[in-house]
Specification:
The chain has 168 residues and is of the alpha/beta class. The chain has a single domain, classed as Glutaredoxin (3-Layer(aba) Sandwich), CATH 3.40.30. It contains four helices and seven strands; from the N terminus they run αβββαββαββα. This is TlpA disulfide reductase family protein. InterPro entries: AhpC/TSA (IPR000866), Thioredoxin-like_sf (IPR036249), Thioredoxin_domain (IPR013766), Thioredoxin_ResA/DsbE_sf (IPR050553). Pfam families: AhpC-TSA (PF00578).
Length: 168
């Protein structure tokens, strides 16, 4: 009987340690520098973030073509915001987490987008950003510092409000 309660006590202590550990910082936090990463775009060109877009305010959106929670219409909507604010230094960056297949017809609807569309085939960059669910979006300022984060889906107005506060 004593051995059994000893194991229970040990299990309870381990659960408490794990619970405390899980509530600590996970992923990027506001005021953290963005990770330095390199990813291919859908044409095979490597883009280095945030260096290649230094001096720009970035809205980095992690999503997946197969994600049922990701609003695919948000990507064309971000194009409209890009056109509206690009002269002020705003650039959205869409990062698809998963395997890209250019033969998949579902990609056709995104061909007209002019902002960076990158591919994180193995999810390594998403992990470096601390993404635990998709979609997740980050606003990174002109110096490469995280200034905002939205976990889950949001409306276009929320995105615009978030990045324009950093842009201005």
């Amino acid at each position: 009987m004593m051995k059994n309660s000893g194991w229970r006590w040990l299990a309870l202590c381990l659960m408490l340690i794990l619970a405390v550990g899980c509530t600590r910082r996970g992923g990027l936090q506001i005021d953290d520098p963005a990770p330095v990463v390199s990813l291919p775009d859908f044409h095979g060109k490597t883009v280095n973030l945030p260096q290649d877009l230094k001096g720009k305010v970035l809205l980095v959106r992690f999503w997946s073509l197969d994600c049922v929670y990701c609003n695919k219409e948000m990507l064309p909507a971000l194009e409209a915001l890009y056109q509206k604010y690009k002269d002020k230094g705003f650039v959205p960056v869409a990062i698809d987490v998963g395997q890209y297949d250019g033969k998949d017809e579902r990609w056709k609807r995104f061909e007209q987008l002019t902002y960076p569309m990158l591919n994180d085939e193995r999810g390594l960059v998403a992990r470096r950003f601390g993404v635990i669910g998709m979609p997740t979006s980050f606003v990174i300022d002109r110096e490469g510092i995280l200034r905002g984060k939205i976990t889950g889906e949001a409306g276009l107005d929320e995105f615009e409000k978030l990045f324009t506060t950093v842009l201005n």
